[in-house]
Every structure is written in C-alpha cells, then in structure tokens.
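Session log. Operator J.P. requested a structure for one protein chain; no other inputs attached. Running the standard single-chain path with token output.
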Amino acid sequence: MHMKGDAQQPDGKTVSVDLSVDQQKNCDGGIEMEGAQADVRHTGGTLYLRGDEQYWKAAFKGQPGAAKAVPKLKDKWVKMPADDTTSKSLCDKQALMASMDENKSERKGMKKGDTTTVDGQEALTLTKKTSAGETLTLLVATKGQPYILKSTTEGGKNPSTAIFSDYDKAVQPPKPAADDTVDLNKLAAS
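Structure written below.
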C-alpha cells in the first residue's frame, strides 16, 4: 500500500508521509516534520532510517552524547535496534490499516455523496460532521475491493489529507550499502 499525506499534530506541527508498505512489513519512503526529513526503509527484517542533521538533532534532543552522535548519523542509513517499536510500526501495514479504523464511531453516520475519481479510480464520497467541528471525508473505491483511496479531515484541531494506492503491491527496497550504514547499537556502545 502506498500512502502519501499530511497531518497536523496536536502541537500544531505538520507531519508529511510518503511511504509504501506491504504485508511482510517491507517499506520504503520518507517522513518530514518542521523541515527535518528522514528516509525509512525496512528490508530483510531490518529497519533503516536516513535522516538529515535536523532530524537527528530533534530525535536526540536532550540526550547525552547527542552532539557527538549527530554528525556520525546525518545522511547515513542508520540500522535501528530490533526493539525500536516506534519506528517499526511505520512499516506495519496491518497496524496502519487498523489505526485508520481504531475509532469505529467515526464511520457511524457517514453519509453517501456523489461519485468522483481519485487518480483515475472511481470512488464513492462518504462524509460526516463531528461534534468537534471536523468534517471527515472518505473516498472509497467502487470497483474491486472497497479500499479507501483518500481520507481528509477538515476543521478541528488535527486537519489531515492522505491518498492511498497500490494496496496489494509488494515493496522491495534495496538494502543500504554497508559503507553508507551505521549500526545505532554499536555507535551507542562506543
């Protein structure tokens, strides 16, 4: 599944995601927030992140040794620890799909609207106004599986837009080259 979109966080910062994931938790793409950018790649059971300097400064803010670590990490593929659940969840297609549907009450009361298209695919418009003043809109495929093709939240505290495609497509990112890779566990031990 390919997902591309923007979401405003509770602190007012916008996070942008452009990521492809599959059933085997392979993923390839990127995330950006407040000008900090990181590429994400999960392949062969290993998660790699390649962040710019601003990304690593934000990730290690307030941690001892950050000033020494950031120059060694920026623009390198960083092999993440196996227990890093926060980053790993980005590449879990089932978890992403479940998170889109964790508040089942959001679906209740959605009204059918007109048929439109999303990237050339016919889609049915479903909308709902929430008590918080948000307008939720889902554009759902009318042919084949009823996949969500686009989701928007307008108004309220956390506006967002996301476009979804390639639901059943395998993701096969290449493993980063060894000379472009840093093992975070080994760096922490040094």
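Operator note: The chain has a mean pLDDT of 87.
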